[in-house]
Automatic annotation (TrEMBL):
PANTHER family: ENVELOPE BIOGENESIS FACTOR ELYC, INNER MEMBRANE PROTEIN, PROBABLE PERMEASE. It comes from Paenibacillus uliginis N3/975. This is Uncharacterized conserved protein. Residues 1-24 form the signal peptide. Keywords: Signal, TPR repeat. The keyword Signal applies.
Amino acid sequence: MKIFTKKFNRRLAMMMTAVTVAMASTTSLSLPVKAATASMSENSIITFKNDAPTSERIQQLIDTAMHFYWNGGDLKQAEKDIFKGITLKGKYDVVENAFKQATVLDPYNIDLKMSLASTQIVQKKIPEALRTYEQILHLQPDHFNANLLYGMYSKLNGNELAYKQSINNLRKIDADQTNSFVQKFKETEEILGLKMNTEVPKGLPSKDHAIVILGYALAEDGTMQETLVERLKQGLKLAQQYPDSKIIVTGGVPKNGVTEADNMTKWLVEQGIAKERILPENKATDTVESALFSTEIIEEQGIKDVTVVTSASHIRRSVALFKEADRFYSKMNGKEAKRNFTNMVYMDYETVEEAHEVPKSELLVVYRDLFRTAGLWQYPGIQR
């Protein structure tokens, strides 16, 4: 279940009741919302009067943004009824423009501006995001997260001086927290140069070792796509060579009633892996949550060494996030983060040389998700 679903359903019921009893023929705002319950059709339209309380209009814009973030929707309908005069090229255009309108309705709300900047980052609109962060910092110069994000995204955009200035500002705000992030950045830079193993690594521990196979979106009918099957094949090779290792399969987005973890477990058992070796993690909706939720299992099982299995194009981000999740869980439990992380990949590049190049677009996603794993929510209070 998505993070906002329960609250959204309660608001939805109240909104539908209001629409039913409302008889005034004033100009209205019509918002297409995909059915949140089985009783509603996919093309349901919720209509609100423009003279509704501002708080309700802001909340509806937030709900619309998050609905499109997760599910998409009818862009032409959104152009016609919500964002008149704006051509929408994709669902994130709806998310961005919904937060833009929300910041107009409540220009004092910093969280809305942070959410707008996050959506611009998701779309790789770094200059636009930096301008949004600058607005926040003009209003709140000591806002730690805005300073941090502005600094790193400035660096990724080629402005090293702005990054250094941000770090200096951050040390004045909270020196310990700043030094912690600087260390995270240093370790992440090291991970960006990791060697990818396409064959089973030698010399892995025979005790307290786990193989983590990362999921990949299922087809609409619930079947596994090629990328996920190839990841499983690599994980199977590891599992056969290291028979005492636990296997964590992670992925919780359901399609046609099954999750990635469900299908992965079934596939491995069909290949002869004992079911008791397999630890399904079936709540994660993305790589950030896979790292956090799998690490909880790793901690619970007393695992000391982890081999992450995924696609080559996904491995740098995955290892960076697992190391960050390990730092968090170790700190929470009063321990030093000492787990060793190795990898095995399905090579989804044309050449090994290409695989080891780190484009700017990948850097952006690595650091964006590193921040999320470290506790900086992408949409504050709404969605990690």
